[in-house]
Write a structure and sequence with these properties.
Strand content: 15-25%
Helix content: 25-40%
Shape: globular
Number of helices: 26
Structural class: alpha+beta
Oligomer: single chain
C-alpha cells in the first residue's frame, strides 16, 4: 500500500486527474495483450510531459517504490505488469508530435503517439514511418522503442532500432539524459542499447525517428497452398531467387478458417492449408517483373491459385486475413497464448512440423501466423484457462516449442520481448556469463532495481549479481606502468607465442608486443591471464584500422599488449538461403565478399579501406552505402566478444529478428575495442544486385552543387549512396567537386530511378558509371 504522503506527492506531480487509485479502474492495467499474467498495480500515474515524468520518478525514488513504464498495453510478453506492488507510469497522454522535419526526414514525438498516427501526420510530406507492428493502429512509439518492435515489412526495412536516432530518457534515479540525436557526437551506441530494453532502463519521454519517402508503387500477391510446408518452400525460393519483397507473411489452415468464420472474413478458401501474402514496393517500373517472378516461385512450390491486387481496395482485401488473424482467434477458444520465436528461414518447414506434432501430443489447438520472410513464428496456442489440466499442458507445450526453435538455430523471441512470460526460457539461449553481463548493464541504468522489476532476466541471475555486489567493479587506481616484453611472455599461456610488433613498434606509440590467438577459447585464456597479471591490453584486427588508438593520436594510457584477431579468419557457418554468414573477426572484407559473391550475395557496406570484418564492426565504419542500406549496426546479427578479464559473451544470434534480452550487441558495434575483443561475427547479406549505376554531377566548388544535393536528398528515390566529394581523386572524373548518386537494384528499376533522379536534379549528370566502375567511383 502506498502511504498518503506518497499519494499526495504523486498527485502534485500530475494533478488529480492524472492519478488512478480506484481498484475498479486499476483492473484495466492488470495485464497487457498477453492475459495469461495478471496483477493490478498499486496506482497508475498519467503524465503529460518529461517534467512530470521526472517529478514522478523522483517521488518514487525517495520512497524506494518500484515503477513500471507502460504505453498502450498492447504488448504480448507480460512486460508492463506491476509486480511487487509497483506504480504504473503510463505514457498514453504524452501523445504529441513535437516536430516534423521533411528536409532531414526526421520527426520528434512523445512516447504516447500511436504508430499509425505518425505516418498519417507525415504522409502530406510524402513520408512515412516504416516499422509497422500488426497492432500499429493502437500501439505507441514508446512501446515500440521498449520492445524494438518489428512487423510485416521489416523484412526489407528493418526493425525499430534502425529508425530511432535519439532519445530523451528519465532514468530510474530521476535524472533526465539525452541519448544520440542528430548532430551529437558519436560514442557507444546507447540509443541502440536502450531500444529493446523493455522499460527496464528508464522511461523514454521524447523519441527522434527517421522517416522514409512513400514508395511510388506497390504490388501485392496472395498465394493459396494445400500445405503450409509448401508455402514455406515458396518463401525460400523467392529469397533464393534474388528477390527482396517488402513483406512475406503466412497464415495456416486453422487461422484461415477462424478468420473466415469471423466478421473479418477476407475471402480465403476455407479448405486451404496456408495462405502466403507477398508484397513488393518501390519504383513502378520493375515491380511487375518482380511480382511475376514471385508468382512463378509460388506456382512451382505448389500454389493452387495466385491472386494479384489490381487496386488499393484489392490490396487491403488480400491483407485482411493476415491483419485480422489474432482478432479472429476468439472464435476458437476463450484464451490465446501468442508465442513468438524466430528460426533460420530454411528451417521453417521442419519447425512447423515439430510444432504440429507438439500440439497433437499435448491435445492442444495450435494456429500459426508468421512473418515467413525472416522466420518469425507465432504459434498461437488456444485454450481455456479455467481448465487447470489444459493450462498445464499449454505451459509444457510452450517450452517444447521454444526448445525446438532454439535447437533449429533460432531464438525465443523475435519481436514481442521476454517480459515476465519468457524469463524462464532465457537459459535456453544465453550462457551465465552473457546473462550476468546483461545484469551488470541493467544495474548501471537502474542501480536500485526499481525500474520494471522481475522482468527479462531469471531470478538466479539476480542472485549472482547480489553476490557480486560487494565491489564496485572499477579498475584499481595504482595500475603498473608498461611491462617489459619478457614479463608479458612469461604471463601468457604457453601455447600462445608472443611476438614483437612488426617494424619495431606500433606507429602511433602503442605497444611493442603482440599476440595473435587462433580461436575464441585461446583469446579468452590470453585476456584472462593478462587481467590476472594486470597487463593492459588493446584489441586489434589486421592492423589496417586505427582501432583503439583513435585517429592516429596517442594512447589514452599505458598499454602493454596488443591482442589481434587476425588469425581468426575462417568461415564458421554460411547458409546462403538464409542470407546469413558467420565468420571469424579476422576475415578480410575482400575474402568475405568473394565467398558471398560465389553465392550471388554481398555484404552491403563500403568502408574507405579494405580491412577485416572485426575492424569494420569495432569501428562501425560506415561508407557511402549507409544512405540506402544502413551502417554496420544494421548488418550485424550476432558476435562473440571476449572481455578484458577473459569472459566470453555470445551476443545476438543467427536470425534477423531477435529481442531476447538487452541488446549488448549494439554496445560492441562501434566500441573501438574498449569493451573487449570481437572474435566471431554473424552478418546479414543481400542478394547481389542485378544493376549498379553511379551518376556524377560535377562543379568547381561544393557550393555550386548544394542545391542539387538538397534536391536529390529529398527525392522520392533513396539512392544506395549519395555523397559530395571535394578535392578527391575519382577514377575518370576530373573536377574539383562531384556529387555522386549510386543506384543499386534490379535492372529496370535502376534505369528508371536514374532517370527520375536526373529530372529531380534539374539537369543530366555529367558522368555515369556502371558495374565495377560504379563501385569504384563511389
Amino acid at each position: 500500500m502506498l502511504s498518503e504522503g506518497v499519494l499526495a506527492d504523486l498527485r502534485a506531480a500530475v494533478g488529480d486527474d492524472g492519478l488512478i487509485t480506484d481498484p475498479a479502474r486499476l483492473l484495466v492495467y492488470e495485464s497487457d495483450g498477453l492475459t495469461a499474467h495478471r496483477q493490478a498495480p498499486a496506482a497508475v500515474a498519467l503524465p503529460r510531459s518529461t517534467e512530470q515524468v521526472q517529478r514522478l520518478v523522483e517521488v518514487l525514488d525517495r520512497g524506494d517504490i518500484p515503477f513500471v513504464p507502460r504505453g498502450a498495453g498492447t504488448g504480448l510478453s507480460g512486460g508492463c505488469l506491476a509486480k511487487s506492488d509497483a506504480v504504473v507510469i503510463g505514457t498514453a497522454r504524452m501523445n504529441r508530435i513535437l516536430d516534423v522535419d521533411p528536409v532531414n526526414r526526421t520527426a520528434r514525438v512523445q512516447p504516447g503517439v500511436v504508430n499509425a498516427h505518425l505516418t498519417e501526420a507525415t504522409r502530406p510530406h510524402g513520408l512515412y514511418y516504416a516499422p509497422d507492428p500488426s497492432s500499429q493502429s493502437t500501439c505507441t512509439l514508446g512501446g515500440n522503442v521498449a520492445e524494438n518492435s518489428g512487423g510485416p515489412h521489416c523484412l526489407k526495412y528493418g526493425v525499430t532500432s534502425r529508425y530511432v536516432t535519439g532519445l530523451t530518457v528519465v532514468l530510474p534515479t530521476g535524472e533526465t539524459v539525452a541519448l544520440g540525436g542528430w548532430g551529437r557526437p558519436a560514442g557507444l551506441d546507447l540509443v541502440g542499447l536502450f531500444v529493446g530494453s523493455e522499460g527496464n532502463f528508464g522511461i523514454a519521454t521524447e523519441i527522434e525517428v527517421r522517416l522514409l519517402p512513400l514508395p511510388e508503387s506497390v504490388r501485392t500477391l496472395l498465394a493459396i497452398f494445400d500445405r503450409v510446408e509448401d508455402a514455406g518452400r515458396a518463401v525460400t525460393e523467392i529469397i533464393s531467387g534474388g528477390l527482396l519483397p517488402a513483406a512475406l507473411e503466412i497464415i495456416d489452415g486453422p487461422t484461415i478458417r477462424a478468420v473466415e468464420a469471423s466478421i473479418y472474413a477476407a475471402g480465403y478458401p476455407t479448405d486451404a492449408g496456408a495462405a502466403l501474402v507477398v508484397e513488393f514496393d518501390g519504383v513502378e517500373v520493375g515491380l511487375s517483373q518482380e511480382a511475376a517472378l514471385a508468382r512463378r516461385c509460388c506456382e512451382e512450390a505448389g500454389a493452387r491459385t495466385v491472386r494479384v491486387a489490381e487496386s488499393a481496395e484489392e490490396r487491403a482485401a488480400l491483407w485482411q486475413g493476415r491483419k485480422k488473424a489474432f482478432g479472429a482467434m476468439g472464435r476458437i477458444a476463450p484464451d490465446l497464448l501468442v508465442q513468438d520465436a524466430t528460426v533460420p528461414r530454411t528451417r521453417l518447414p521442419d519447425v512447423l512440423g515439430q510444432i504440429g506434432e507438439i500440439g497433437e501430443r499435448y491435445r492442444l489447438k495450435v494456429a500459426n501466423v508468421f512473418h515467413a520472410g525472416d522466420g518469425n513464428l507465432h504459434p498461437n496456442i488456444l485454450f481455456d484457462r479455467r481448465d487447470a489440466d489444459e493450462l498445464g499442458r499449454v505451459e509444457a507445450a510452450s517450452r517444447e516449442i521454444m526448445q525446438a526453435c532454439v535447437d533449429a538455430g533460432g531464438t525465443i523471441t523475435g519481436e514481442h520481448g521476454v517480459g515476465l512470460d519468457k524469463r524462464a526460457y532465457m537459459h535456453l539461449i544465453h550462457d551465465p556469463a552473457t546473462l550476468d553481463a546483461m545484469a551488470t548493464v541493467k544495474r548501471v541504468f537502474d542501480p536500485g532495481g526499481r525500474c520494471n522489476p522481475d522482468k527479462v532476466l531469471p531470478d538466479d541471475v539476480w542472485l549472482r549479481a547480489a553476490a557480486r555486489s560487494n565491489g564496485d567493479g572499477r579498475p584499481e587506481a595504482d595500475a603498473p606502468a608498461q611491462r617489459p616484453q619478457d614479463g608479458i611472455r612469461l604471463a601468457m599461456p604457453a601455447s600462445v607465442p608472443v611476438e614483437s610488433w612488426p617494424d619495431g613498434g606500433h606507429p602511433f606509440g602503442g605497444p611493442t608486443t603482440l599476440v595473435r590467438p587462433t580461436d575464441t577459447q585461446t583469446a579468452s585464456a590470453v585476456m584472462s591471464a593478462a587481467s590476472a597479471e594486470r597487463i593492459r591490453t588493446a584489441p586489434v584486427g589486421g592492423m589496417t584500422w586505427t582501432s583503439a588508438w583513435g585517429l592516429g593520436g596517442p594512447l589514452p594510457g599505458p598499454v602493454d599488449l596488443a591482442v589481434s584477431a587476425e588469425r581468426m579468419d575462417q568461415i564458421v557457418h554460411y547458409e546462403p538461403a538464409d542470407l546469413t554468414l558467420t565468420a571469424g573477426a579476422g576475415i578480410t572484407l575482400d575474402r568475405l565478399a568473394e565467398v558471398a559473391r560465389e553465392n550471388g550475395q554481398w555484404l552491403a557496406v563500403d568502408p574507405r579501406r579494405s580491412g577485416t570484418l572485426g575492424g569494420l564492426v569495432a569501428t562501425a565504419s560506415a561508407g557511402p552505402l549507409v544512405t540506402g542500406f544502413g551502417g554496420p549496426r544494421d548488418h550485424v546479427l550476432g558476435a562473440t566478444l571476449v572481455t578484458g578479464d577473459g569472459r566470453v559473451l555470445r551476443l545476438g544470434g543467427r536470425v534477423v529478428k531477435n529481442v531476447a534480452g538487452y541488446d549488448l550487441l549494439k554496445l560492441a558495434v562501434g566500441s573501438w575495442g574498449t569493451i573487449g575483443l570481437i572474435t566471431e561475427i554473424t552478418v546479414r547479406l543481400h542478394p547481389l544486385p542485378e544493376a549498379d549505376v553511379t551518376l556524377a554531377w560535377l562543379a568547381q566548388s561544393a557550393e555550386e552543387l548544394a542545391p542539387t544535393a538538397l534536391a536529390l536528398g529529398t527525392a522520392t528515390i533513396v539512392p544506395g549512396a549519395l555523397e559530395l566529394v571535394v578535392g578527391g581523386h575519382l577514377p575518370g572524373v576530373d573536377a574539383p567537386a562531384a556529387l555522386l548518386a549510386r543506384i543499386i537494384g534490379r535492372g529496370e528499376s535502376v534505369s528508371a530511378s536514374a532517370r527520375m533522379l536526373a529530372i529531380r536534379a534539374g539537369r543530366a549528370p555529367d558522368a555515369e558509371r556502371s558495374g565495377r566502375e560504379s563501385a569504384e567511383l563511389s
